[in-house]
């Protein structure tokens, strides 16, 4: 087994990710009752993306 470093880049089928940080699926209750994204839901994901999660 390879010693994997969380903050080092890795490639998966040609897609290079800048780190190995992941978030499991979870409920935020930031969408409308019929499942549409709200501004709060969008801002939540933008904040995570700007914080350095793999892209």
From TrEMBL:
Signal peptide: none annotated. Residues 5-54 form the NADH:flavin oxidoreductase/NADH oxidase N-terminal domain. InterPro entries: Aldolase_TIM (IPR013785), OxRdtase_FMN_N (IPR001155). It comes from the Bacteria. Transmembrane segments: none annotated. One of its GO terms (molecular function) is FMN binding. Pfam families: Oxidored_FMN. This is NADH:flavin oxidoreductase/NADH oxidase N-terminal domain-containing protein.
């Amino acid at each position: 087994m390879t010693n994997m470093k969380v903050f080092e880049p890795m490639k998966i089928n040609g897609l290079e990710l800048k780190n190995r940080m992941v978030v499991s699926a979870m409920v935020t209750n930031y969408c409308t009752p019929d499942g549409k994204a709200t501004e709060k839901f969008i801002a939540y994901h933008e904040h995570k993306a700007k914080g350095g999660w793999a892209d």
